[in-house]
Amino acid sequence: MKLLMVRHGEILSNVRKIYAGRSAEELTERGLAQAAEVAERLRHRDVHALYSSPIRRAVQTAQIIGEAIGLEPVTEYAFREMEMGPWEGMSEKDIARLYPEQWRIWQSRPAELKLRGRETLEDLLKRVLAGIQDIRRSMGEGRRVVVVTHVAVIRVLLLRQEGKSLNLYKKIHVPNAGIFEIELRRYARR
User: Fold this and answer.
1) Residue spans of beta strands (DSSP E) within 73-168
2) For the domain that residue 47 is a member of, what is the CATH number?
3) What pLDDT does 163 receive?
């Protein structure tokens, strides 16, 4: 089974370097254009199912993709953005000022950051892997599935696929509307 992970199109928080988290922000004009471009790239990929995070920006992107490939997106909570806790809605600059020690950890050893109300990278990975296993059980083998999701979800999966430490999280570049192929056979629950 092949999983094509797609990051949602641009939102204003991406431009402003604000941790949007689970906010209901909509795509910008550029984000809508990015979603249309990724939809066109997926049009002839023989996709069997389309899943989406329930967060508005991902749903918007998935709907645009779904129209292009003839599939209705299925909402899956396992693929929602990481819970940011007190950092949600804050700029990187404000977080660095208000949470200096935690910000240093986040920049250098992100897998070690523990902050009340904020999901750890390990917890995020476990949640996402459980969602992948659910898709695998329902879809069977030999299928291509698109999942529209968020930067954190894609980063932890790419690191897992490469067998690398989650502390390399900040090194993974995941642009808006980027497509990343994941081989599902590599994902057994831990």
Assistant:
1) 74-75, 144-149
2) 3.40.50.1240
3) 92
Location of structure tokens 């904020």 = 118
Are 31 and 176 contacting, i.e. CB atoms less than 8 angstroms apart? yes
| Residue 61 token pair | 């992107």
The Cα–Cα gap between 105 and 59 comes to 32
Determine the Cα–Cα distance for residues 24 and 157; give it in Å rounded to an integer. 24
Range of 117's domain?
2-186
What's the whole-number mean pLDDT along residues 90-108?
97
Helix then strand then coil, % of the chain, to nearest 5: 50, 15, 35
Whether the CA torsion 113, 78, 160, 26 is positive or negative: it is negative
pLDDT at 3 over 70: yes
What are the distances in angstroms from CA 61 to CA 30, 40, 98, 143, 153? Answer: 12, 12, 33, 21, 16
Q: Report the predicted TM-score, pTM, of the whole model to 2 decimal places.
A: 0.93
Axis crossing angle, helix 151-162 with helix 121-139, rounded to the nearest 10: 80
Quote the number of domains for the chain: 1
